[in-house]
Design a protein that fits this description.
It contains ten helices and seven strands. With 319 residues, the protein is α+β, with helices and mostly antiparallel strands. The strands form two sheets. It has a five-stranded mixed beta barrel. Strands 6-7 form a two-stranded antiparallel sheet. α3 packs parallel to α5 and α9 runs parallel beside α10. The longest helix is centred in the last third of the chain and has 24 residues. The model has no long low-confidence stretch (mean pLDDT 89).
């Protein structure tokens, strides 16, 4: 049987091979029968899967671990779903290449951290330099592999660095158009805006997020980010206007209450941060959907965008 990647699967195709368990849970259907609901992935994408008529003789597959599966691809509510016929845990003899099973940022964490550090070193505002450096130090080594989300944008190994460094590039481009913006403040906001996700998500070193933490569910990364910033301010002895401005940028970067921000952006750098964050997140989501969709076709509905994505032909004679 030919082995396909997830982004190559179509309705009624069959699959046999190794996939990473992103999450798995035993559930009960309306007739009282147990089944296992899973999300399986490789570096190309993710698919929901079901093991029906679960007999309970084996443990539910563990999130963050690869398994070998055989099954058929079906369609349910407009989305592809795999019906698992057989599965097993992997053995040391299995020819597994984890690089094929785990989506990862296109650049190394070392390269991306170097970009961030170079930006921080260029700050002329010493207070912003101290705060940003301390926050990065508090983040520690986890920043090298931590994802930016569980299933939405930049849900990949080193995804948080990927998102942050691409946003820095957008911010620096925006500063060419709007040179009156405060460069240090905007770049500091970009670097710090999502560091609270380190306390919001439960992730292993492969970048697989199994769940939200207690703090993530009760508070979220906006609030947790502000508490971390306050710790950094206390440790560095920085206070005053720049701390409040960064607090507001962290609190308002989702833009409106519907998306978790209790205050809208209320000064130019905060407004710029919001739209830079929004653009990078949506373009990454668009790219992921576009890559999984054949030319001339529409993707399944992308719920974070509330629409389907079209993959253009891009050439006049393609049709």
């Amino acid at each position: 049987m030919e082995v396909y990647r997830i982004n190559q699967l179509i309705k009624d195709s069959r699959f046999e091979g190794f996939l990473m368990v992103r999450g798995a849970e035993k559930k009960t259907d309306k007739n009282g029968r147990d089944y296992v609901d899973m999300n399986l992935g490789d570096k190309s994408g993710e698919i929901n899967a079901k093991i029906w008529n679960w007999d309970g003789l084996q443990e539910v597959p563990e999130g963050g671990k690869p398994i070998k599966v055989r099954g058929q691809v079906q369609e349910y509510n407009g989305r592809l779903q795999m019906k698992i016929e057989r599965w097993r845990v992997v053995t040391p003899e299995d020819p597994i290449d984890l690089a094929e099973l785990v989506p990862a940022a296109p650049r190394t964490s070392r390269e991306m951290m170097a970009d961030i550090q170079e930006t921080v070193n260029s700050f002329t505002n010493e207070n912003l330099k101290k705060l940003t450096s301390e926050m990065l130090s508090m983040a520690g080594d986890r920043l090298n592999w931590f994802p930016a989300a569980q299933r939405m944008h930049h849900a990949e190994r080193s995804g948080l660095l990927h998102h942050t460094t691409d946003m820095l590039r957008l911010a620096k481009a925006a500063l060419e158009v709007y040179p009156w913006l405060n460069r240090d403040l905007l770049c500091a906001g970009v670097i710090l805006h999502d560091l609270g996700k380190l306390e919001e998500l439960k992730s292993d070193e492969s970048g697989n997020v199994s769940d939200y933490t207690r703090d993530g569910q009760l508070l979220g990364h906006l609030v947790r980010g502000i508490t971390l910033l306050n710790k950094a301010a206390e440790k560095t002895g920085v206070s005053g206007e720049c701390v409040v401005l960064l607090e507001h940028m962290l609190l308002s970067h989702h833009g409106e209450a519907e998306y978790g921000s209790p205050r809208p952006p209320m000064f130019p750098e905060a407004e710029a941060l919001h739209w830079i964050d929004m653009m990078d997140a949506r373009m990454n989501t668009m790219k992921s959907a576009w890559e999984k969709t054949p030319e001339g076709a529409f993707s399944e509905k992308i719920f974070s965008l509330d629409r389907r994505v079209y993959h253009p032909w891009y050439t006049e004679d393609a049709e």
